[in-house]
Design brief:
With 268 residues, this protein is α/β, with parallel strands linked by helices. It has helices at residues 2-9, 15-26, 28-31, 36-43, 47-56, 62-74, 86-103, 107-119, 132-143, 155-163, 181-192, 207-211, 233-250, 253-263, and strands at 122-126, 149-152, 169-174, 196-201, 214-217. It has a five-stranded parallel beta sheet with strand order 2-1-3-4-5, with helices on both faces. Helix 2 (15-26) crosses helix 5 (47-56) and helix 8 packs across helix 13 (233-250). It is elongated and about 65 Å long.
Length: 268
């Protein structure tokens, strides 16, 4: 997904490269008809800058990029009929987001991470800000399975915990952008201590994605959106997939029946 990839690498682009990215995102149907010279002119940059962006997207040449973009644009997607209809807008946004994550899933990697979780003595989640509720919920899910899971949002606790991990432990760091310095540093310390590290992020080539052993990518947000309106649906979806994979590999109905009996006295 080219548009998705552009949004994912957006924060790693230079100021001039972002002008090319913005133009492609906003005028993709026009771009498929442009030569590299025309795209450079409309973006107000040099052809070299356009070529750098094309290379960062993983294409060997401009023609290959245009063919792939045209193919992507020909695929049906959910459209909003009334721009003022908040409900349909949000519904379509979430559906498209989940669809994009699913189309780009690395299922082999998800199985690998699920196996690592089952083999680990400690399962640690690092996140800050609005990503922390996802991390906390994740730790509670795995703790309910009897696995040694915990989540940390305080940067000082993160580095203390990270420094005391070993190769028998797993750290899952959640950051929508992948550019949060605290999460990056804490994850780096955990990796240096020997822990297996995984990032759940939409930031392609972000600092966080570069420091971990493996990256599970979610759907990046549109660069034009305010960062405080970005949802965390993609991150939640990945965690749900990992949780269900772990359950399918080891846990039976008997385990959940036991949990129901434990929780029953807590309910009216």
């Amino acid at each position: 997904m080219i548009i998705n990839k552009i949004k994912g690498i957006y924060n790693s682009l230079t100021k001039r490269e972002k002008k090319v990215a913005d133009y492609i995102i906003e005028r993709a149907p026009d771009v498929i008809h442009y030569s590299i010279t025309e795209l450079a002119n409309w973006s107000e940059v040099s052809e070299t800058t356009v070529y750098r962006v094309i290379k960062k997207l993983g294409f060997t040449g401009y023609q290959e990029f245009k063919i792939s973009l045209a193919k992507e644009l020909s695929e049906p997607s959910l459209e909003t009929i009334d721009e003022k209809d908040l409900f349909s807008n949000f519904h379509n946004k979430i559906c498209n987001s989940l669809d994009n994550v699913y189309k780009n899933l690395n299922k082999k990697l998800l199985h690998k991470v699920a196996d690592k979780i089952l083999q680990s003595k400690k399962i640690i989640f690092f996140a800050v800000g609005r990503s922390f509720p996802v991390a906390l919920d994740s730790s509670l899910k795995f703790a309910a399975l009897g696995l040694p899971a915990a989540a940390y949002s305080d940067p000082h606790m993160q580095v203390i915990v990270g420094a005391n991990l070993s190769e028998q432990d797993t750290v899952i760091s959640i950051s929508h952008s992948g550019y949060i310095r605290d999460v990056f540093k804490s994850t780096q310390i955990a990796k240096d201590a020997g822990a297996y590290t995984v990032a759940i992020t939409s930031g392609v080539d972000s600092p966080l994605s570069m420091v971990v052993h493996d990256v599970i990518y979610t759907t990046p947000s549109d660069p034009s959106e305010n960062e405080f309106t970005h949802d965390r649906i993609g991150e939640m979806y990945i965690v749900e997939l990992l949780y269900n994979l772990v359950v399918s590999k080891k846990f039976s109905d008997e385990h959940f029946d036991k949990l129901k009996d434990v929780i029953k006295p807590k309910k009216f």
